[in-house]
Amino acid sequence: MSEDFLRYFPDLTAGQTEKLLALKEIYARWNSMINVISRKDMDQFYLHHVLHSLAIAKVIRFTPGTSILDVGTGGGFPGIPLSIIFPDSEFTLLDSIEKKIKVVNAVKDELGLLNVKPVRKRAEEEKERFHFVISRAVTSFGEFVKLSRKNIHSGSVNELRNGILYLKGGDLTEELKMYADRVKIWDISSFFDESFFETKKIVYLPV
Question: Which ranges constitute the DSSP H helices of the chain?
Fold first, then answer.
């Protein structure tokens, strides 16, 4: 899978491809010192982390100048892979755990990602506003909306109105009931063939 994912993104530059392919070695090295990714997930690194993160790029092409907040970024997902393919957008990667932000800082520095700003902070403490808030299933969708809607400002610059882009798997019927008339949901399996994505979705809530 190390290079297979590239077939889904044929328009990447040589520099972007090189950075994406460098990710596994960098994360493997840091993961041996600071465990931020499970061993099982490291074995499926490009599938479980990189390609899953890049699913967001299948529903929106962030315009230059777009600001994005990645809440609960962990080791840097989905923010790091997205920052590589959207170098003209600004990514703030937020996590409350210091060792995770240490890894994000290291990856950012090794790859020279000038559009990435790692921040150690709880989501409740973040006061800045952004065009989009993104995340990978850090809590229930309702809880996430309560946490992050304060961080979305008005003044859209993309085809999608400013809002939340949330990666989550499983049956979301109950979880999304109160937002049913407002959310848009994409099945990631409609973009990628791998069975890993069969139940995985992108949930978009304009705010």
Answer: 14-33, 39-43, 45, 52-54, 79-85, 98-111, 141-148
